[in-house]
Amino acid sequence: MEWERSFRRKARKGEAGLAAEMDVDKFSTLPEHVQHHILSFIPSIEEVANTSLVSKSWLGTWRSFLITDFKPWLILPDADVSDFMETGLGEYGKSFVKFVDGALMRSREGMPRFGFFVNAELAPHLDRWLGMALDCHVKELSINIMSDLPYSIPARVLSAHFIKTLTLTGGVEIDGISAVSLPSLRLLHLVCTLIDNQMFQRLLGGCPLLEDLSLCSCGLLSEIKVPNLHYLERVTVAGMGPEIKVVSIEAPGLESFKLDRGYQYVRVRDIGLAVHVSPNVRGTRIQYSQSNSRRLVEFSSSTRDCNIDTNKVVYNITTITYMQNFTVNKLC
């Protein structure tokens, strides 16, 4: 019947119109910075790279996309990822070096962030990669050394006036650097970093605008003394062992101080720890669970709030005359 033929023609036309509409690459019509922002939500670099197969325009977007975190297992087959720490990259090593070199070469116009996980076999390339990142005026720098061999950080990193956040994890060694100048640095996180008392003081002296300081398991430090940093707001000291004797924080703008639990299985008795915190600090939290030990904790007289989480630890607490809220919580 005529009406059936007419209906079928309209249906076919509708399907064709829908297909044509679906063929339109609306993503490619977006501004480049919007495209990059959308791609940044894709969790895997491999999946981002696969978008380059869609069309020539998507290929151009991929080539201009800034990769900011370089992890060796990005190029490994799923079956080899779990063995990476023991076996390394193996046959994929050269491919990964080429991958990083190419990504950094595409970032000449600027790099907001550079994060890198490196093991022993990739360490020889790290100086060159850091140099390229610094040439791009990287704002956020994160280095994770997954190796028993220490890596001496280049002095140039500690004199980069444009770096705003610096995170060093693993066997990163900071030593023998005579001058530190990080005038833009706002955040400094050191995890298992090899740095002694003298170099730590020199490092902080070159960070006048520091706002956030975090130290975790830095075994060479026997004292943590923070000079008069006017902009410092948050300090966290974690994973501390018996070698830490003094924690002294001088910062008129300090808002938060956290001292987290250390090693639970250290058999050392009568360990004294003196904690001096700026008088304006709003809140202090100390968490410690080492058994059979004693901690001497001294607070500034104007500290308003203090929480101590403890498990079978004897605390001798002094100088709390003006403290408004004082709480001791027993850890299970």
Automatic annotation (TrEMBL):
Domain F-box: 27-66
Pfam families in the record: F-box, LRR_At1g61320_AtMIF1
Signal peptide: none
Domain At1g61320/AtMIF1 LRR: residue ranges: 123-263
Identification of the protein by name: F-box/FBD/LRR-repeat protein At4g26340-like isoform X1
Source organism: Punica granatum
Lineage of the organism: Eukaryota, Viridiplantae, Streptophyta, Embryophyta, Tracheophyta
Gene from which the chain derives: LOC116214134
